[in-house]
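Re: that chain you flagged

S.,

Sorry for the slow reply, it's been a week of failed gels. I finally had a moment to sit down with the sequence you sent. For the record, here it is as I used it:
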Amino acid sequence: MAQEGWLCTDTASRGIELTQRIVEASQEGDFDTIKSLLEAGVSVNAAEYNKTLFYASQNYMTPLQICAEHGFLECITLLIKHGAALDAKDRFEVTAVHLAAEKGYFQCLKALLDAGADCNIGTKYSRHGYYKAVPYPGGTTALHLAAKNNHVECVKELILSGADFNAPDQHGRTSLYIAAHEAHEECVLVQLSSALGRDILSLPVNITKETPLHECVRHGQRRAVRELLKHGSDVNHKNNAGFTPLHLAVQVTSFNFELLQDIVTMGYNVNLDIRDGNGVTALEHVSLNDKFVRQPEVAAFLVAYGANWKKLRSKQLTLLQQELLTKYTDRVLLHAMADSAASLPTVESLDLDTLTARGGMIRPHMPRLAFSEEKLEWYKNLSRNPRTLQHNCRCAIRSAMGMKRLKHIAILPLPQSLRDYLFLNIHQHLASLEGANGV
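Prediction finished late last night. Pasting the structure tokens below so you have them in one place:
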């Protein structure tokens, strides 16, 4: 009996030694050694050696996982041929597909998927009081890892092989959000174009409540923004700070007017008057907000598409009062406000002479500047004289359409000149500015 026990122990030790050798050969990509060991009957999954690692509370991987991590395609093909477990998991429930996708080894990934490996396995969720040094958030799939590392071809192959592009990790992040967060525009685009058969969702993450659209706007990724809007991303969704993608678009450091125009003209039911977490609208950000550069052309564009300027106020001044008294000489926003209103308050009712403005504005005891007098005279004549029938018809049509439908003026079966007039001629004005700036 003692001899039999010794023989069993010796056999077990021999099995551990041989399976350790196949693991070490896999780490080196030593095809010949792996082949000879397999032909000698050594476990293709290194079961005996991995069992010792498991009981020692160490991580363990099969030869297939190791070869996938290092991109040893020839070895992977050999191991698959000898029946390697395609979906074998390590201590953190990471599979060979995870490892190949993370490193961007496309051919290795394709070999695994073609052999029938599951591409939707999620990694282990850490539980309170348990070992927490996990390499990935719980529920991380191969698609999450490929998207995070911008492996576009791997992303495409995974989706074509049935990867769930709407699967969230434990933080609520989908592969689409991860790609947007990492500013991988091509990766965002390939997911949107490859996701066939069902909708790819622009879901908010758990903590910040931001969507892929928020992230793409923040990074100035115009092509991705356009595609997300075509796929129905919610332009009115607020993050935890109360900001919609529209609010972010007017605040980003590298402001992109074309991107803002896309949000307004392509977004579904865009609310231009929605207030952010600080109670500020997009129009206020570009016209009344001291923290950002004044952008009258952008403000005029927002007014043309229905933003309500009449109730906006910064401390003592309404937006109209500010534009009449400001040190800036342009009138683009004044024209937009005047063209969008059926009637205007008189100069006397604005009480401009008694206003005490902040620095840069005209004070009652200061002499008026020439451009201020010109603007006031222009406005005085406009507000005192009756508006034309044509103008009143424009205001009536715009009012009947409402803010959320004004963008559809562009597709009405009307002459271009009439569509321009209904849009307050804003597009012509912007085009002339681009021409003057040599754009």
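What I noticed first: The chain has a mean pLDDT of 88.

Talk soon,
D.
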